[in-house]
Amino acid sequence: MHQIYRITLDDALPLLAAGRAKAEEIGVKQTLCICDDGGNVLALHRLPGARLTGVDISIAKAFTAAGHERATHLFNEAPDGPALPGNEAFGISHMLPGKFAVFVGGFPLVFNGQIIGGVGISGGNGTQDKAVGAAILAEFEALTAAVASH
């Protein structure tokens, strides 16, 4: 037997706040999504002026990161990205149309070695999405450090 950890809405809201603060700091209108380990949306925030398409894209990135336990950009990083032509997962994004993202902006949430959710960020370029993701992950680390110490 093992203990199972879950992310809740109360956990997700500070993550969105950290992401929003970073997006505003760097001047990018983004959409941020936090999902649970099943890829179900817990919280979504579309900053004022963010693209309409960012909603579905951020959800897909969070779903992919949670479901495959890896940052979404790793699918296409040369030379071994599994979704690159000639590699074992080439075409995987077509298996779940509209739900699977293989580009920058999705990050898994891992606590105590378990995937408990995913983060999806859409609206900036790759560098901007990674910066907002890093801010969210730093907040997640701070929150989970407090839990782990109890």
Structural commentary:
With 150 residues, the protein is an alpha+beta fold. The protein has one domain (9-148): Haem-degrading domain (Beta-Lactamase), CATH 3.30.450.150. It is built from three helices and four strands. It has helices spanning 9-26, 54-68, 126-148, and strands at 31-36, 41-46, 106-111, 114-122. Strands 2-1-4-3 form a four-stranded antiparallel sheet. The longest helix has 23 residues, at 126-148. It is globular. It starts with 8 loop residues before the first helix and ends with a helix.
Q: What's the quick description here?
A:
This protein has helices spanning 9-26, 54-68, 126-148; strands at 31-36, 41-46, 106-111, 114-122. It has 150 residues and is of the alpha+beta class.
